[in-house]
Amino acid sequence: MERLVVIGNGMAGVACVEQLLKHGPKFSISILGDETHPNYNRVLLSSVLAGQKDADEITLNPVAWYAGHDIDLRLGARATQLDRAARTVTCEDGRRLEYERLILATGSAPVLPPLTGLNLQGVFVFRTLDDTRALIAAAGAGVRAVVIGGGLLGLEAARGLQLRGCDVTVVHLPDTLMNLQLDAVGGRYLQRHIERLGVRVCVNRCARAVLGDGAVEGVEFADGSTLPANLVVIAAGVRPNVVLAREAGLEVRRGVVVDDQLGTSDPAIYAVGECAEHRGVVHGLVAPLLEQAKVLAAVLAGHRDERYRGSIPAAQLKVMGVEVFSAGEINEGDGLDCVRYEDAGLGVYKKLLLRDGKLAGVALVGDTADSQRYAAWLRGGADLTARRSSLLFPAPAPDGGLDVAQLPAAEVVCGCLGVTKGDLIAAIHAGGINTLAQLKDRTRAATGCGSCAGVCERLLRAVAPDFVEAGPSPICACLPFTQEQLREMIRSQQLTSVQEVLEIYGQGEGCEVCKPALSYLVDLVWCGEHEEDRSARYINDRVHANIQRDGTFSVVPRIRGGVTSPAELRRIADVAEKYRVRMVKITGSQRIDLLGVAKEDLPKIWADLGMPSGQAYTKGVRMVKTCVGTDFCRFGTQDSTRAGIELERRLENLYTPHKVKMAAVGCPRNCAEATVKDIGLIGQEGGWQVVVGGAAGKTVRKADLLVTVATTEEALSAAELFFQYYRENANYLERAYDFIERVGIEKVRKQTVYAPAPARAALLERLRKAKALAKDAWLEREDPVHAAQFVQIQAMEVPQP
Amino acid sequence: MTPTFPARGAAPHAGKVRRSFAAAANAEPETWVRVTGVEAIPLRQGRSVRLGAREIAIFNLGDRFLAVDNRCPHQGGPLADGIVAGGTVVCPLHSWKVCLESGAVRKPDVTACVPTYPTRVEDGVVLVCLGAAPAA
Questions:
Q1: Which of A1, A318, A508, A536 sits at 20 to 30 Å (Cα–Cα) from A179?
Q2: Strand partners, A282
Q3: Exposure of A78 by Cβ count < 10 A (0-12 exposed, 13-18 middle, 19+ buried)?
Q4: Integer Cα distance of A539 and B90 in angstroms
Q5: Is A390 a residue whose pLDDT tops 90?
Q6: What is the mean pLDDT of residues A62-87?
Q7: What chain B residue is nearest to A582 in terms of C-alpha separation?
Q8: Class in CATH terms, B17-130
Q9: How far is CA A734 from CA A88, A675, A729, in A?
Q10: Cβ(A616)–Cβ(A622) under 8 Å?
Q11: What is the C-alpha to C-alpha distance for residues A512 and A658, in angstroms, rounded to an integer?
């Protein structure tokens, strides 16, 4: 077998080896890598920095892969000398390897601009996994970071640091960001997007020095101005690593010069990746490198006809919330037609450059939905003459109604029930049907095997005047995502405030529908690690009281299980008189409502009551209604009063997708109406039934049985399991009964009381964590979230009449 | 201590178009009133202030402060307690949406509006411009 040595253990070199292995065992292979990690996906380092991926998630080839293919892997081995006459490579540690074929895949290194002070502690580059780890260690809340360079890498570094809490400024020498991929207009659009994320951008600024004594303290610019900083990232471009090749006498210009078969000026030596210069171009993006690797592997395997003919550079910015795509030529010029679209309000900029009716370049900012189509046109050299008038419009959707239109009316659509297309259309018209469920209900079509449901739905779409798609709907018009998607986005992208979600996905504004929903979701996902934003909450949740039609508020203190005392009642009566409460009302929840309280009196009334909030104003835990149980009732079989009070204590102060009303009754006579509550405990001889999803509001629904258990503790635990499952999985403003109708009680049982022990423990653990952080909202009387939380502003001066 | 909220039952002018004071200010002498420090109104929230006979809701939109009458044209709801959605506020009572720049009702589709008042910030203090007293 021939001896093949690969210098460089990065994506290009290893991809080439991977391809080579597919052609069969032909070489005995050694790979030298100066980093100490096996091959990883360098493109994803920005995701590691942003906290979206762990460092070990981006490994492409674990050490076992090398061993499994008998590859001699030398990590931490930097090649320092190449002797072409002797065909040897010498490493830093003096070890020497012989080769018959050699691949240079040495990549590139960050360019360090001529600044003084680059040796200070706190100055970083962003090229390797080790660099990334060092950056993560140095980043954090309150750290002031300056990123020098507003190209692809600099912007990704900036956003990553910002997500880790740093206060970030990007300093860019040219006039506009990403000037290698975007024209000036596109660069300015991008700048607005970046600034909207909260990253400061200074363009046309030349950094002269990093200031500091030992550690970084600031950055000084050519005009003498300075910017304070504790962390500086140099992202001013990269330069191919060519020293080894040059010293060995290979032809080197900017990179190691290669021909169409990736051969260098020495027939035994090849070069791929960022260190290679092909037809005058050094490629720095991943797709061309992988194309090169493929061709070189074929050439080495003996396919002499393989040729690499160059790539059209295409770049995609991986900055969460900012979409940028660029490929091909950038700037207008002779012989180029420019097709442009801009909408400054939406932040969308699209530009196509055409030469001789073919696409020569594309730049998209703010909306990259069509990038694949443009990339395909660019690669394939498609003739666009006939499409000139619609280049910037999305591809027309295929005719969804075609298959339906082709069906004759007498054709049987549902073979099981014998329903024809004509029957279905007649039913849709006659019955005013708009949903698949209605159509199934009316015609019985698709209720057999169900295989015609797709045709039925397409028929509805084509025929029904107000067709309603089944399935989850977006939360509101300004944030077009389902709650499930939002929950996932908040989790995976570490969005810890409502405003952050809105900035990235909702044009920064939001509305009265999505803001409270996002408040709930962010709180649920991050559980105390989020940024509470009262402006996103309904007034009731800003001041912890229920607004009434005259702008006053109602106050309902917590009276657990509906059990009070003479002293407490006396205090309530005193408070009601002192604040001239307009009405004192016994509620349906076995509580007392004080109505007609002014906002500024709320903290005082809470203090005088000395009772916790009953959460009667919010989507949260309302109460547990109880009967008198075994203590007094001659029919009582379980101590429902104590069980109810305990349940209320365990869940109070928590927030839920919609209000949660509960009850505990001591016998099946059900005096506290547990069967029409969101959660009910029904005592019976020898145990409890736990029921969920009851309703006695807009609709009346008898609760479903969740489980039957023997002890009070088991009953409480079952209730807690359901409670937390509902919190985590229901949509905001979805009552427990709607939630159960949607997912089905069987699934709810399977995922709560019948779930494997670890899953149950995890649910309870998350509940416990939330509970530990939950506190009585009325304590804000002593510790308001804002000095003006409850007060009406008193004007500084009186207007002259 | 008695509640200071005025009764907000059936407003006599509910649903009617009201003249904007921003527009009327040209004819009347301008009166600028120093109201409060900017810090008294949290970001993207509103607070109400009584200025003479009027109760005015002032909103902090981050880059500017906007002021309108603190009465929803629908049933007199306290707009200062609404959720701010872009340049609008949503009344907490029945979700009428009012444009804070023009005072016009955006939702539902009715012709109604609330008076607006010019504002400016000086040395960290929000000033509101009152024209003459409202006709109501």
A1: A508
A2: A277
A3: middle
A4: 11
A5: no
A6: 93
A7: B3
A8: mainly beta
A9: 71, 19, 10
A10: yes
A11: 16
Per-residue pLDDT tens digits for A690-719: 999 999 987 789 999 999 999 999 999 999
Distance between CA atoms of residues A336 and A204, nearest Å:
28
> Rounded to an integer, what distance in angstroms lies between the CA atom of residue B107 and that of residue A430?
34
Give residue for tokens 């990065």: A10
C-alpha distances out from residue A15 to A19, A124, A458, A651, B100, Å: 6, 28, 45, 55, 59
* Chain B residues lying within 8 Å of A579, measured CB to CB: 1, 3
What's the rounded Cα separation, in Å, for the pair A22 and A595? 78
**How confident is the model over A253-265, as a mean pLDDT?**
95
Angle between helices A712-729 and A757-773 (to 10 degrees): 80
User: Are A269 and A105 within 8 A, CB to CB?
Assistant: no
A contacts of B33 (beta carbons < 8 Å): 795, 797, 799
Residue B3 has pLDDT above 50, yes or no: no
Position B2 pLDDT exceeds 50 = no
- Number of DSSP helices (H) and strands (E) in chain B, helices first: 1, 11
Residues 6+ apart with CB under 8 A from A277: A240, A252, A253, A254, A255, A256, A257, A258
Q: Which residue, among A619, A502, A596, has the nearest Cα to A549 in the 3D structure?
A: A596
CB-based contact A654:A727 (threshold 8 Å)? yes
Mark which residues 633-652 of A lie under 8 Å from B by CB.
none
Which residue, A793, A787, A800, A551, is CA-closest to B50? A793
* Residue numbers in A near B49 (CB within 8 A): 792-795
Q: Tell me how close the Cα of A548 comes to any Cα of chain B, in angstroms.
A: 8
Residue A397: the pLDDT is 57
Q: What is the DSSP string of A283-325?
A: --SHHHHHHHHHHHHHHHTT-TT--------EEE--BTTB-EE
- Report residue A433's pLDDT band, with 50, 70 and 90 as the boundaries: confident
pLDDT confidence bin for B26, thresholds 50/70/90: very low
* Mean pLDDT of the region A621-633: 93
- Phi (first) and psi of residue A751, to 5 degrees: -100, 0
Q: Express each pLDDT in A516-555 by its tens digit.
A: 999 999 999 998 788 889 999 999 999 999 999 999 999 9
Interatomic CA distance for residues A737 and A694, integer angstroms: 6
Helices (H), A660-744: 712-729, 736-743
Q: How confident is the model at residue A316 (pLDDT cuts 50, 70, 90)?
A: confident
Residue A783 sits at the vertex; the CA angle it makes with A782 and A788, to the nearest 5 degrees, is 100
The amino acid at residue B31 is: T
User: Which chain B residues contact residue A552 at CB under 8 A?
Assistant: 3, 5
Three-state SS at A208: strand
Residue pair A143/A231 in contact (Cβ under 8 Å)? The answer is yes
- State whether residue A365 sits within 8 Å of chain B by CB: no
Of A548, A499, A494, nearest to A519 by C-alpha is A499
Are A679 and A723 within 8 A, CB to CB? yes
**Position B56: which residue type?**
I
C-alpha closest to that of B67 among B17, B121, B15: B121
Q: DSSP assignment of A113-150, as one string?
A: -S-BTTTSBTEEE-SSHHHHHHHHHH--TT-EEEEE--
- Which of A509, A598, A788 has its CB closest to that of B42? A788
Q: Which residues contact B112 (CB under 8 A, 6 or more apart)?
A: B15, B16, B17, B73, B74, B104, B105
Over residues A604-610, mean pLDDT: 96
Q: Can you give the length of chain A in residues? A: 801
